Task: structure prediction
Amino acid sequence: MKELIQYAKDRFVNILPEIDVPAHSLAAVASYPELSCTPGADKYVVSSGESRRRRDTTQPVIPPVDNTLCPANEKVYEFLDKVFGEIAQLFPFEYIHMGGDEANKKFWGESDAVKALMQKEGLKTLDEVQSYFVKRVEKIVESKGKKLMGWDEILEGGLAPDAAVMSWRSMEGGVTASHMHHDVVMSPVQYAYLDYMQADQIIEPRVYATLRLKKAYEFDPCPDSLDPKYIKGGQANIWTEQMFNVRHLEYMTWPRALAIAECVWSPVAVKNWDNFETRVEQQFPRFDEAEVKYARAIFDPSFDVKKDADGKLQITLTNEVDGLDIYYSFDNSFPDNFYPKYYTTPLTPPKDAVMLKVVTYRGKQQVGRIIAMPIDELQKRADRKR
Result:
């Protein structure tokens, strides 16, 4: 780790360490079950992640076991004092990130120890229990000469006095924290989550949602309504529990990391999508030369579908990039630039069609992937909209 810290420092990069508590702590609980509020923690084992892959992303994350530390257990704070003490000695950066996100507090609500803590400390809600925990962690971190940062959930129940907030669920948490005169790093899912799919789920390894390059380029970490002195900057996140190898990690990073970089380093007034997109394309040969895997999803169209009054599908295709032509087929053959061309009128599939295939060209050169979209899938999407 010291070598990695030095490698980053030589390139003017500081590494911010994160020890995620009180949730996402299953490894700690499995090793030290006495840190849990829940009986049976001594039977917990740490999964390598397979059960999380391909989960139903429309539902909230509910861990099958209690992956939280017990806020009512003094041993937890002794443990964290040692952990954050070691982290503080190892990492020279001024902040330590405590996580604080996605704590499933239902386990706390079932704990007699937590109920006793609430009565003793006058805590009315489980959010206030987490706030109590965060404030105690802040004192530990500050005792090591560091500043505390956490995800926007640390706002719930009352923010610790000097904590900085990293806002991930939306910009809203960061806005709230900045109005309270706390430092903020904006990292909203809507613009900055690089583990989201690059294009339509029909052609990508399916994860939570899609984040197109153009949407990422709309990121503004410091809206006009905020005092910029409280906005430390922005951050892109790329969580890898559903990425199976490093080549796919590269694919998910590029070129969207270029968009986030320009958003956090350039004033909004000088940003221009058409200019940026042109420069992105100029990077593609460099990626090729360096044998870096990257997404060419900017050349793939987006599908929007609805049903008309007669129940027939109306399929609208749009491009992120100007100057591209879309060609299509409904007979399951592979379209090229001699096939029917899509203009602006929505497509209605023939009665016997089972597949829509599309491809994009710039002039006579194919630039997009051939995308095979089942008509059944379009029907499902249209039904969900109604």
